[in-house]
Amino acid sequence: MKWPYSIALRLAIWLSVGTCLLWLGAAAISTNVLQHELAESFDEGLRQSAYRLLPLALHDLWEPSEHALPIAATEGAAAGSFTYLVYDSTGKVVIRAEDAPQVLSSIPSGDGFLLIGNRRAFAASDHRSGFGIVVLETSNYRGEALRDAIGALFWPLAGLLPLGAAGIWFAVRLAMSPLERLRREIAERGGANLSPLSNNKHPVELAPIAQEVAALLVRLKSAMDIEREFAANSAHELRTPIAGALAQTQRLAYEPGEHPAQSRIRDIESALRNLSHLSEKALATRSP
Amino acid sequence: MRILLVEDDQVLGGAIRDHVAATGHSVDWMKRVDDAEAALDGVGYELVLLDLNLPDGRGLDLLRHLRARGSSVPVIITTAQDQIGVRIEGLNAGADDYLVKPFDLSEMSARVAAVARRYSGNPAPLVTVGAAQVNLATKLIMQGEESVTLTQREWAVFERLISRRGSVVSRSELENSLYEFGAEIESNAVEVYISRLRKKLGRKTITTQRGLGYRVDK
């Protein structure tokens, strides 16, 4: 289907596309900020967990009790989002939660974040004992939170986009209604109707056009009146002398008796009739 | 018939006047509205040929004025304006027919005769008067197998009597049909033409109503 060439339609489409792009841009920036904030928040959680778990783990090492594994169970299982392992100065794992790696590929160089496999981790160490702890994320909460946030930003767009487009279409039509009124008024004008445009108050954008059209109609009406007057006068000025000449010729033709001039009179009458037909054609082409 | 021609063009008016006169009618030719109004006030015309564009006014105004006074004289408009609106305006103003210039003189004569017949109450061109069959359109009179030829003035008187068949037509009315303005009227002109008609058509064709005028019976 070929769309009609419509300013209102084009405005509505481009405004809808513009709104959509603006929203997408804003959502992309928001996603970026959100991702950064979420990363910071999750990292802070890892860091705090590491610093809180390390003393407890060391305490368990120095004063063994039945609580070694429950620490892991309590912290890790309760959170459900990370696990940990404790290593000594040689890198040997001395305590590990159930789902933690069994060995460390390398001893973390200091306190800080690192990647183990593709999992985010935070390493903290006790400088006096040489023990250290690595807390690793076990869940994909970070990604899920980001996806949820992105979904919350983009799904309304999908729902609101048609509503927004409809609203834009309505607003554009409303804004274009003076133009439509002016179009209808101009469309009603023609050869038979050159009446002035109504005195409706036009928007400033349309007022000059309406004024020019009104002035044009006045000039056109004046020109057509002159044309009509000229045609009427032409009719009188042309037909009356032809009628006179024709009538006089016919009178001559009625003269009794056959004489040499009769054939010439008939020729003149024929020529006058031709002239009359030609003038009628000329007048017909000038008739409004 | 006595016809008033209102036409300001010298050439056309002259031709119309000559043609109408040649067909047996008396014609008064006026070139201005005020002259035409004065003529209409003084003479009982039987038909008016009226141009619309006149030097001192519009023929339509003259026509409206005429009808406003209650005159029922037949009026044929002759004009160079052929717009439908002007025609309608003319007919609505009380015109009986409309001729657009340039027109054929024989067509004009036919229309004049047709309008006159309509006004006489008998639009048919064939009329029976006694033993004579009269064709008002061709002005041909047949008595049995023989045709009767009338002069223009004889025809003018006879036509006037036929147009009022069954009614008495006064002597002055018949004089009116015979002479236009300025023509010399002989005192016994009507009697002369009546006498000639009786000779050609039969004595009983025209009845004299003493002191009143003449009559052709239906």
TrEMBL record, chain A:
Highest rank taxon of the organism: Bacteria
Stretches assigned to the Signal transduction histidine kinase dimerisation/phosphoacceptor domain: 228-281
Gene Ontology molecular functions: kinase activity
TM spans (from-to): 153-176
Membrane topology type: Multi-pass membrane protein
A Pfam entry, by short name: HisKA
Keywords of the record: ATP-binding, Kinase, Membrane, Nucleotide-binding, Phosphoprotein, Transferase, Transmembrane, Transmembrane helix, Two-component regulatory system
Enzyme Commission number, as recorded: 2.7.13.3
Compartment annotation: Membrane
Record bears the keyword Transmembrane helix: yes
Keyword Cell cycle: no
Reactions this protein catalyses: ATP + protein L-histidine = ADP + protein N-phospho-L-histidine
Chief location category: membrane
InterPro entries named among the record's database cross-references: HisK_dim/P_dom, HisK_dim/P_sf, TCS_sensor_his_kinase
Top EC class for this record: transferase
PANTHER family xrefs: SENSOR HISTIDINE KINASE YKOH (PTHR45436), SENSOR PROTEIN QSEC (PTHR45436:SF14)
Protein name per Swiss-Prot or TrEMBL: histidine kinase
TrEMBL record, chain B:
DNA-binding region, residues: 124-218
Pfam families, alphabetized: Response_reg, Trans_reg_C
Alphabetically ordered keywords of this record: DNA-binding, Phosphoprotein
Matches recorded under InterPro entries: CheY-like_superfamily, OmpR/PhoB-type_DNA-bd, Sig_transdc_resp-reg_receiver, WalR-like, WH-like_DNA-bd_sf
Superkingdom, taxonomy of origin: Bacteria
Record bears the keyword DNA-binding: yes
Annotated Gene3D superfamilies: 3.40.50.2300, 6.10.250.690, Winged helix-like DNA-binding domain superfamily/Winged helix DNA-binding domain
The keyword Ion transport belongs to this UniProt entry's keyword annotation: no
Ranges of residues in domain OmpR/PhoB-type: 124-218
CDD domains per UniProt: REC_OmpR_PmrA-like (cd17624), trans_reg_C (cd00383)
Span of domain Response regulatory: 2-116
Modified residues (4-aspartylphosphate): D51
PANTHER family: REGULATOR OF RPOS (PTHR48111), TRANSCRIPTIONAL REGULATORY PROTEIN CUTR (PTHR48111:SF36)
Name of the featured protein: Response regulator
Species of provenance: Devosia algicola
Lineage of the organism: Bacteria, Pseudomonadati, Pseudomonadota, Alphaproteobacteria, Hyphomicrobiales
